[in-house]
Amino acid sequence: MVFDSTETASREELREVQDGRLRETVRNAYENVEFYRETFDEAGLSPADIESVEDLSKLPFTTKEDFRDHYPTGMFAVDMDDVIRVHASSGTTGKPKIVGYTREDLDVWSKAVARCLVAAGVGSDDVVQNAYGYGLFTGGLGLHQGVEELGATVIPIGGGNTQRQVELLSDLGSDVIACTPSYALYLAEVADDMGIDIRDLPLRTVIFGAEPCTEPMRNEIEARLGVTGIDIYGLSEIVGPGVSVECEAQDGLHIWEDYFYPEVVDPNTGDPVEEGEEGELVLTTLAKDALPVLRYRTGDLTTLDYGTCECGRTCVRMDNITGRSDDLIIVRGVNFYPSEIESVVLEFDEIAPHYRIDLRREGTLDRVEITVELVEEFGGSLSDLEGRIQKRLSNVLSFTPDELNLVEYGDIARTEVGKVQRVYDHRGQ
Predict the structure, then answer these.
(1) Is 273 helix (H, G, I), strand (E, B) or coil?
(2) Number of alpha helices (DSSP H) and beta strands (DSSP E) in the chain
(3) 121 — alpha (psi -120 to 50), left (phi > 0) or beta?
(4) CA–CA distance, 245 with 255 (Å, rounded to integer)
(5) Which pLDDT tens digit goes with each residue over 248-300?
(6) This prediction's pTM
(7) Is residue 179 within 8 Å of 208, Cβ to Cβ?
(8) Is the pLDDT of residue 391 over 80?
(9) Pairing state between β 296-302 and 228-235
(10) How far out from the chain centre does Cα 390 lie?
């Protein structure tokens, strides 16, 4: 089942829609956003030079720094009188990125999220428990309005209050819960503490996002909760959740190309990569009035697959995001991503799916300290387990972490609201 016919349109039909909407987006950006007008003029371009998506490569990229340089509303293409809602990024590394929506923008967003829900197997007769945070974060209200667009029932509980979450899953028979992957696992832990086997509840689907999720982490979620795990993707600067989603085939995330045009480029050079080659995802909005965004460098690493999915949808699929270009950790000349450590942690039955990475500097040398949790029922040899984990980490990372701490179950702090923090960099302190 699809939400609308665009999901199965031919590549030619999609391209016609994309080209027309891109021309309008470029005109809007040039005429109404000083930043883009200056960008075009400096590049010696006019809106007439961008006739199709094939011309996008003529344009420079838009970056998160551009949003911060024009804080709060310098990237808006409409007056505040026409903005009916404002959201913002988390702002964990400085000023948040402020984003605005017209009524038409909210309508597009709602339809994009409704498509995501249908692709995930959600129907109008389902009950969706929304455990994403409400407020300036786009997750809560973004998912909420998509559920309502679909005509399903939404439980707007928001993040945290985990025992109550479990009670509502049981009492209201929620079919679907939307939350971060780390919170899904925490939910299972709390249910166990309450004497409830969450696998016995009607819950059948977890729609997770806002954090990278490796395939082993998905497998852990599905096993612990007895559900199908579906990855949803989005970011505030583009719209929020709803840019792409996995269908029930779980073979990549469908990008709604009539709303968001994707490119993948080499994160170092900015040059396009071949189809199927990993690079940084770049997105251009095609149907936003208040905040048109051209060639936004997301920082997220992925690949694109233009083959038709077994579900019948023709929209391009992106691979699951397991890392960001700015999440890259460099220690003693070796590059690695936190997701590589996560994949190792989840290989061991003796280890719970929780970890933290501490980076320290002693003199001129960087040190990596990894902390993992034992499962509750662990009864084996600590030294043997430590040796096996260190050996596996060394094979995966191409160096041996300086310290591996095995701690009791529950010692690593859980996150009930917002994104989980895995990496703590103390080197600049």
Answers:
(1) coil
(2) 10, 20
(3) left
(4) 7
(5) 999 999 999 999 999 999 999 999 999 999 999 999 999 999 999 999 999 99
(6) 0.86
(7) yes
(8) yes
(9) unpaired
(10) 30
